[in-house]
Amino acid sequence: MSSSERVTSGLAALAALLADETRARFCLALLDGRAWTAGELARHAGVAPSTASAHIDRLVGGGLLAEERQGRHRYVRLADARVAHLIEDLAAQAAPEHGRPDGPPTLRAASAAGALARGRTCYDHLAGRLGIAVTEAMTARGLLRQDTGFALTDAGLRWFADLGAPLAPSGRRPLARGCLDWTERRPHLAGLAGAALCRHALEAGWCVRIGSARAVKVTPEGERALAELLGLPAATLR
Amino acid sequence: MSSSERVTSGLAALAALLADETRARFCLALLDGRAWTAGELARHAGVAPSTASAHIDRLVGGGLLAEERQGRHRYVRLADARVAHLIEDLAAQAAPEHGRPDGPPTLRAASAAGALARGRTCYDHLAGRLGIAVTEAMTARGLLRQDTGFALTDAGLRWFADLGAPLAPSGRRPLARGCLDWTERRPHLAGLAGAALCRHALEAGWCVRIGSARAVKVTPEGERALAELLGLPAATLR
DNA sequence: GGGACGTTTCGCCGGATGACGAAATCTCCG
DNA sequence: CGGAGATTTCGTCATCCGGCGAAACGTCCC
């Protein structure tokens, strides 16, 4: 009983951390995987610095955020991939049903900005249309198996090695896992492989971050590489 | 902006549902996968029926619970497997670090009640030592692959078919997924396959529920079956 | 040294929320 | 029909919590 007692209050306490709009906004912003300063978060959420400070205290205390102090700055980021995944899951569950009416918005999107794939990062891996497209292409090529769960195949392991980003099982984080995309409603590749792919994509110039949000856009080189390595038609990303 | 606005409030609202101890207790109780009446939940949590009623309203309204009214009873259960998984994930994250001191408790447990495996159900699949043992045995036998993610192998698919519980991909729920066990700190089999296995185990008399909690114990027939089908030594479950 | 800047501490205020009990509803069953 | 039991509605109360601004504290840089 006392044990179940602890689990109950632990769950409630953890949920309480995310139950406030300001703290929720902080966490969603931090899903970009980078470290933000306390002041940046305060401005982002539109609250006073003192208010933000107290919130950050609670989030750090609750183990959701990790902090690193540098001089007069207080940098915070999500504690680890597991926390990031948890927040993504919650956001996915909370996402409005968004039955997308295929009216003007779709048409406008189709005719819009050239090489812009509606992609974004989700903590440390690719998400959005781009993330889904890559994940589907890998599945179609037999690099990833989604029919019986979510795992890389041996061919998938080789593919990463050939890419120059060999995957080494490390710690508790799984090599591959599906992360439900809350805009596309389908899983995209997460886990160590997802992180490695995203890192490689940014380093190799396949895509670049745009703005301060989590958005990324595919570069021409990226289109070529994805077409060659995964058979992804450039049109898919536009 | 308005979109990110909605996501933020959605996340906060969802978290707020679980941020109350009483509601958290309800949800954890409902993890046994069965339907409880409003009164049962009220007694379980030690609150007045009127209080419980209001909480259930909110949980149902938030989509976490599904209700079914039968006469003067109001039955509620978790809305679906996804909600159950979310709650398990949160509980796992919130679980105290539980560095288990291997003193008396372990010794006592080792010498205790004969054929009692410390198993339990997690919504609709097996968890605890039993769930882990089964998952590990399936992995060792090549029925499940955990090194590159978490997925059944083709041999695993056949194993379920041979068992008389063929798996048919259905809807959005994945065939196999890892569910982090918050007492064992390792993933056990969840998803459709986990549910099928648990259902089969209960129907075939491999294990029976004990008490009103989520605990299950393995029967002698269960020991025989698990030894034969998975090479699980009976001692593992004791 | 001194000013600018980022962060924190403190005290206070107003709104939100969970708890209860009493009484009203509703359903079942004798 | 009428009583028993399950659930809900309503009014009330106490508490908690997030917000702010002012002032203090540290660090950086001129």
TrEMBL record, chains A, B:
GO biological process: response to cadmium ion; response to lead ion
CDD domains: HTH_ARSR
Residue spans crossing the bilayer: none
Domain HTH arsR-type: from-to ranges: 3-98
Stored Gene3D superfamilies: Winged helix-like DNA-binding domain superfamily/Winged helix DNA-binding domain
GO MF annotation list: cadmium ion sensor activity; DNA binding; DNA-binding transcription factor activity; lead ion binding
Name of the protein: Winged helix-turn-helix transcriptional regulator
Organism of derivation: Microbispora oryzae
